[in-house]
Design goal:
With 436 residues, the chain is an alpha/beta fold. The protein has two domains: 109 residues, Urease, subunit C, domain 1, CATH 2.30.40; 290 residues, Metal-dependent hydrolases (TIM Barrel), CATH 3.20.20. Helices cover 37% and strands 23% of the residues. It is built from 14 helices and 17 strands. An eight-stranded parallel beta sheet has the order 6-7-8-9-10-11-12-13. β8, α4 and β9 form a beta-alpha-beta unit. The longest helix is centred in the first third of the chain and has 17 residues. The radius of gyration is 21 Å and the shape is globular. The protein starts with a strand and ends with a helix. The structure holds zinc ion.
Length: 436
């Protein structure tokens, strides 16, 4: 938990859609924003530590709503394959062999480094052996909604699938209340790897423990075809028939929705988390974000794991989401810049249930912010901040990163972990993976 006062000044402030000041200031006390606006009007803040934006753009930290952080170990291990071959022939076997709690701790630490350095302050992370990842978040001070994975076959840390629910319960109970930055949750892998019974039990556990439940849904055309063959319904319709749709908090992907299904998701209160980088690389297709937004869906953005992306830079996802929307509709006005950036702010925050805490720099919100280096050639000159953030920026222009009022990246250097050591540990594991 953070303590003390922080003042961030010295650059323009874009605090969220429609909130821009050419000379801005953000003041925070004990990790909570107490002022965000014109620097000239900022009230005094006693004994504050100072963070100088040095002409850079101050803005809310990005929120990666869906990731499997520890999968950085498998980055580039198997590429240029369709999802089923990639997953069944490469990823699931590698996970069975190499994933344990030490691996998730070590590899999540590298993922945290990558995310903080590229401007992500909150992550929705779902994986097996989630306690290892929780330790990495606890040690580094990154904000995470961290879900233990659930699947109907033997998985890392869960050799007997019948114990999957018990492992989820144990994880949630173990990590509830440990840190205000870590929110435990449950991730049922998908309706094609979890039976209706497993999904129903997961929903019951969600309600019993008061945590959020996520799943991958309608990712590929073959998943939809298989569902039609097996259940006589699309994955979305089938979950609705089972009464499970409204018991889900967010569905990841939703690339292949039938007519009216975006509206159904909105009615059932299911947020969508789109992962355009992963979906396009696997050739799965792309989510129809403009229709989802028009139909009232909450839509967040995620990178998915680094094995299918292959990086965790959320700026890439924002730019891709905006471009794919225009390609899909043939309309360049579709998903304009400010709306695209906000997918990774308010949209992702709501998908994670943190909409009152992160995604904006306003009094009462957490002091999770980043400073973008506006002296970078690719961000020069500046007319409109959301335009740059969508079409020109990358994570490489992030200079400072603050989570909960704590400066975790200063002048592009991590203050919360030893980057060389984090990379060396993952290289060591990777050498064993490569050795077979
Ligand atoms: Zn995923």
């Amino acid at each position: 938990m953070s303590s003390g006062n922080l003042r961030v000044t010295g650059g323009p402030l874009w605090a969220g859609p429609g909130m821009f000041w050419p000379s801005g200031a953000v003041l925070a006390s004990d990790g909570v924003v107490v002022y965000a606006g014109d620097a000239a009007l900022a009230p005094p803040l006693p004994e504050a530590s100072e963070l100088d934006a040095d002409g850079g753009l101050i803005m809310p930290g990005l929120i990666n709503a869906h990731c499997h952080a520890a999968m950085v170990l498998f980055r580039g291990l198997a590429d240029d394959l369709p999802l089923d071959a990639w997953l069944n022939q490469h990823i699931f076997p590698a996970e069975a062999r190499w994933v344990d709690e030490r691996m998730t701790e070590v590899c999540t630490r590298l993922a945290v480094a990558e995310m903080l350095l590229s401007g992500t302050t909150t992550v929705g992370d779902s994986y097996f052996c989630a306690s290892g990842a929780a330790r990495a978040y606890e040690q580094t001070g990154m904000r995470a909604v961290l879900a233990q994975g659930l699947i109907d076959f033997p998985a890392p840390g869960v050799p007997d699938p019948a114990q999957g629910l018990a492992v989820c319960r144990e994880f949630v109970e173990r990590w509830s209340g440990v840190s205000p930055l870590i929110t435990p949750a449950i991730f049922a892998h998908s309706p094609y790897t979890c039976s209706p019974r497993t999904l129903g039990e997961a929903a019951a556990l969600r309600e019993d423990l008061g945590v959020r439940l996520y799943t991958h849904l309608a990712e590929t055309a073959s998943e939809v075809a298989q569902s039609a063959e097996t259940h006589g319904a699309s994955p979305v319709a089938w979950l609705d028939e089972l009464g499970l749709l409204q018991r889900l908090d967010a569905a990841v992907h939703c690339v292949w929705l039938a007519e009216g299904e975006a509206e159904l998701l909105a009615q059932r209160g299911v947020a969508v988390i789109a992962c355009p980088g992963s979906n396009s690389k696997l050739g799965s297709g792309w989510a129809d974000i403009p229709t989802m937004l028009a139909d009232g869906c909450v839509v967040g953005l995620g990178t998915d794991g680094a094995a299918s992306n292959n990086n965790l830079d959320l700026f890439g996802e924002i730019g891709l989401a905006a471009r794919l929307a225009k390609l899909r509709t043939g309309d360049p006005a579709s998903l304009p810049a400010e709306q695209a950036v906000d997918l990774a702010l308010a949209g992702s925050a709501a998908a994670l249930g943190l909409e009152e805490k992160v995604g904006r720099l306003e009094p009462g919100f957490a002091c999770d912010l980043i400073v973008m280096d506006l002296s970078a050639p690719r961000l020069t000159p500046l007319y409109d901040a959301p335009s740059h953030l969508t079409y020109a920026a990358s994570g490489n222009e992030v200079r400072h990163t603050v989570v909960d009022g704590q400066v975790l990246v200063k002048d592009r250097q991590l203050t919360c972990l030893d980057l060389d050591q984090a990379m060396a540990s993952v290289r060591e594991l990777a050498a064993r993976v490569a050795g077979g």
